[in-house]
Amino acid sequence: MHIVRIVAVVACVTVLGVLVMAAQGAAAPVPPAAFTCGVTVFTPCNQTAHFSDLSEELTPPAPSGATNCPAFVLNDFASLVATGNGIEHSIVNKAGDGWFTTTFTGTATITPFLDAGLTVPDPLVSPFTGHLTEWFGGSFNRSNTVFHSTFHFSGSDGNGNTLTVLDVSHANTTAANPLGPPHSFEILRCG
Predict the structure, then answer these.
(1) At 53, is the secondary structure helix, strand, or coil?
(2) Is residue 7, in this structure, part of any structural domain at all?
(3) Contact 114/76 with Cβ under 8 angstroms?
(4) Looking at residue 25, what DSSP letter applies?
(5) Is residue 13 assigned to a domain?
């Protein structure tokens, strides 16, 4: 009976030690404004930030490879404003290799504009409001870089017109050609 208790205590201490070591290596949560790991800091770091607001400027995608998209998706610039749940995480190790990812899901409004400065709204297209799920991630080391992203929006305008946009993109460099141009593709589908 005494040996069983000793084994149980040793097992508990071992599990506790593993949990403490894992917690020490966990990402330091920071406010979004203080998120610097892999952005401005490229020494060893490990950070996570949660955010609830997203604001982006969308540029026209390359029309080749677009499927079923209206002209304004292919030609207009757009502002995207969203509220929901977002998380970003980044790690840079001692060798200077890094990994990062950002995920967001929530309610978004996309407003089409005729100019890159977002000062002239497209008079023929009303803003669309709906659900957005977006993911961006990548990795880098001294020889290679990889970037991936997905963008999925499904919404409607005030007139009942619907818009669904799915965009998947990828770009990477290799050790044979680390400065590019990257190998890349983008798939854009609308509905």
Answers:
(1) strand
(2) no
(3) yes
(4) T
(5) no
